[in-house]
Structures are given as C-alpha cells and as structure tokens.
Design goal:
The chain has 465 residues and is of the alpha/beta class. It is built from seven helices and 25 strands. It has a seven-stranded parallel beta sheet with strand order 1-2-3-4-5-6-7, covered by helices on one side. Helix 1 crosses helix 2 and helix 3 packs parallel to helix 4. The model has no long low-confidence stretch (mean pLDDT 95).
C-alpha cells in the first residue's frame, strides 16, 4: 500500500487512514505491507486499533552510516506498535540480489534489526536473486514466477517464507474492452497472463500459497491504486492500476475474488456489467466470483447451466451480448442461498449518497467520506455514467477534497473557492467521492449534490464535541 488518496495526496488525515483500512478488511485482508518506505505513525496506530498485521519497510538497503541511521530511526520509532509483524530491509534490489555482497549486506542489516528489536524477525523482498534471501530470517518472494520457491524449500527446509508480492491482475474499474489513448486498461485477469498463459492470474498467487502451509501467506500488489508507475499504460494514465480497489477505494471485480476465499461470508459476484453498448452481437465471457458450492447462470432468461465452483477458482460462461439481465444463483450445501442480478440500466436519472459516518468530531481534523452513485429512474446503478456534479456544503464542515477513481483523472481535486463550500466533480463509471472535514464548531452540516437533469440528493451530518 502507498499512502496517497484523491483530494489529499500524501497528506492523509487520521480518519482517512482508518477508512482505507476498513475498506481492505471488508474484503478479507488481514495484513498490510508498506510501500518501500516507513509508514506514518498514525497509520500504524490505525493498524494497531483494527488488528491489521504489518510488514514495515525501510527505504534503502545498505550498511553505510546513512542506511543504518534510517533503519534505526524506523525501528526505534515504531517497535512498540503491536501490529508490526516483520521488519523489511529492502525491495527488489536488483543490483545486489545475485551477488555475494548482497548476502553480506542483508546479513549485517539482520544483525542491526535484532539489536534494535530482539522480538521480531526481519525479511527482504526479492525479485528472484537467490543470495539476499539466504541470510534473511523470513524469505520474501516477489512473484512465484520469478522465484524458485519449491527448490528453496528443498534446499532450506526450515526456512520461513512469505509471498511479499504477487500480482492482482487488476485494471481500470468498470473497463472491459481496450480503450487506446485514454489511460484505461482491461484487467490482466481477462486474458492469458504470464508464461503459464493463466486466465485470472490473481488465482495464481493465492492457490500457490494456500496449498503450501509451510508458507506464511501473500501480499498483493496493491491494495489501492496509487499515483505513479502507470506501467503498462502511458499518459494520460498517471498511476498504477493494479489496486484491488481504485484510488478512492471503490472495489474492482478482483476484490470479490478475494472476498470469496478470504472471508466466511457467502459471496456471489458477476462480471462484466451489462451496459456494453456497441458490442451487441459479440461473444462475451461472463465470469462469477463466488464461494458457493455451485452457481447457475441465466442470460436474458436463458439458462446457461449450473457449474461446480473449484476451490480458490472462478466460473465462466460465454454468451452473446444483448441488453437485458444476467442472473446468477448460488447453491451452498444443496440449497439456493444467493441470487444476484446485473441489468442493463437506463440513462442517468438520480444521485445516491452514502457516507461512512453520520457523526463527526468538531475538532477541525475529523473527516467523513461520502460516496456518490449515479442511478437510473428504476434506481439501478449506471456503470458507464460520467456525469458532472455540483457539490455544496453548509454548516460546520468544509470540502477537503474529491475524486472519482479514474486513473487518468486530470481535473482539480480541491475546491477552488476560498471558503471550500462548493466544488464540481465528474463521476467515473458511475462513481465519485467527496471528503468532508469538520471545523471547531458543533451543530448540523448538510451536503447537497446536484446535476443537470438529475434528481439531486443530500446528506446531514452531526458535529459533536
């Protein structure tokens, strides 16, 4: 996880740290790896309070005075946080991974870690070089396609190891066809990926680690989308799109794959959405992520069959696209337990609001996250809507920032007026988000959202001492 968010950049308020962690926990995540630099203490406080295990990572791998000073600062500052599980001394240090000098550097850093904190082991994340993982307390494997994990198990049978990085395969939320030049990408899970030509490559990592109890689990690159590293895209894309959730924390399809296998909640998720205008008559792959024993699929009323769900897998059917309805029925222990429908929606007609809280602290610091959805006149979500919204607040709050999860977003993310009482934002594939920050005053605050030709919406918040 990188620490940035639309509307605030790297300056995340404490309440937003908690919101982001809760979004991850909702899909079964129980551990968090920082992105190659120490986390803020406030983020670690949030992990402590929510029971999220942490791998905290220092910035530089080396043993000169500056390297050790940075490592020492991180460990001394954060070693009393109970959430920290491992100290990481580096990530994909290609220049030393295949050299004896790399092994010596990591061995020396291991000893410094032990002297600074004798209660926790250390790790280092390798992209395939064998030398640097040998002296680590816990081997960190970045991608099983790059690391000979099975051979290392044979050569070092007592070694502890984790999957420090695996690909999520994600792309742009709500995008199912290539969009050249717009900075949007189809998820790699929808086409053959890697030398094994695997479909749904997010399964590769989880199946591998779940089937090997001697390994300690895995971390996916990444939890949220983040700015920078737009690979494999180019401008106007401005960030990585491999988050399970987009910039704002709106879930992509692959988040439901993990929810199915990482939680005890019954899950039934259909993709793609069924607003595929321009593809009438095309053959479409319909996928279902679920932990039900069996799933039955209907397309526009036609039964395409009932299939057994493989462990840690997914199901797929082919159908010709015509506007209408996808319906999946999930069976668990012989009984129909869930039904999910995805319908072709009409044109945008109304705005729906949800907020992560109804009460805020009047401390000039607290933040509420308000999510905006575009729906049609039948209240169905419109997954292709890019609608201009006008947002206004009254009472003891101001607009801190806003966004929509678009990885090619170019517009301002902060109010341009001095009092921060109004702003404009366009939804991306039906969704947008507004961050409200409290003032020092108590009372009621109201958020109002309007759009031309649409029924508006409002939300009332209470500010307390």
């Amino acid at each position: 996880m990188h620490q940035d968010h639309p509307g605030v950049g790297a300056g995340l308020p404490d309440a937003l740290q908690v919101y982001r962690l809760k979004q991850l926990k909702a899909f079964g995540c129980n551990a968090y790896r920082s992105s190659h630099n120490p986390m803020t203490p406030e983020m670690l406080d949030a992990c402590d309070s929510l029971g999220m295990l942490v791998i905290e990572e220092n910035r530089l791998t080396g043993v000169n005075e500056e390297h050790i000073r940075l490592l020492s600062r991180m460990i001394k500052r954060d070693r009393n946080h109970p959430s920290i599980l491992l100290w990481s001394v580096g990530n994909e240090e290609w220049g030393i991974e295949w050299k004896e000098s790399g092994a010596r550097i990591v061995a020396a850093m291991r000893e410094y870690c032990h002297r600074l904190d004798s209660t926790r082991p250390m790790t280092v994340a390798t992209s395939g070089g064998p030398d640097i993982v040998i002296p680590a307390d816990v081997a960190g494997y970045n991608y099983i396609l790059q690391n000979p994990v099975e051979r290392h198990r044979k050569d070092y049978p007592l070694r502890c190891a984790v999957g420090s990085e695996e690909t999520s395969g994600c792309g742009t939320r709500g995008v199912y066809f290539d969009v050249p030049g717009k900075g949007h990408m189809v998820a790699h899970n929808r086409k053959p990926n890697g030398p094994d030509s695997l479909l749904n490559c997010i399964e590769r990592g989880w199946k591998f680690y779940d089937e090997r109890p001697y390994l300690g689990g895995l971390f996916y690159w990444t939890g949220f989308d983040y700015r920078g590293e737009p690979n494999p895209m180019k401008f106007p894309a401005t960030g990585s799109q491999f988050g399970l959730l987009d910039y704002c924390g709106f879930p992509k399809d692959e988040a439901y794959y993990l929810k199915a296998w990482w939680t005890d909640e019954l899950v039934l998720h259909i993709l793609p959405h069924w607003n595929l205008q321009g593809h009438e008559g095309d053959s479409i792959d319909i996928w279902v992520y679920s932990n039900c024993d069996e799933v039955e699929l209907f397309v526009n009323g036609r039964n395409l069959g009932r299939k057994s769900m493989p462990r840690n897998g997914h199901l797929s059917w082919k159908a010709v696209y015509r506007p209408g309805t996808l319906e999946a029925r999930g069976y668990h222990k012989g009984r129909k337990r869930l039904t999910r429908k995805v319908e072709t929606s009409g044109i945008p007609a109304r705005i729906s609001l949800t907020a992560n809280r109804a009460v805020m602290k009047a401390d000039n610091r607290d933040v509420a996250v308000v999510c905006l959805e575009i729906r049609d006149k039948k209240r169905r979500f419109v997954p292709t809507a890019c609608t201009d919204l006008t947002i206004t607040v009254s009472g003891p709050v101001h607009i801190l920032g806003f966004g929509n999860g678009d990885p090619a977003y170019q517009a301002p993310e902060r109010p341009v007026n001095a009092d921060a009482r109004t702003c404009r934002v366009k939804t991306f594939n039906g969704l947008a988000q507004v961050l409200l920050q409290s003032t020092n005053d108590t009372g009621e605050a109201t958020l109002t959202v309007d759009a031309a030709g649409l029924r508006g919406a409002s939300w009332v918040l209470e500010l307390r001492e």
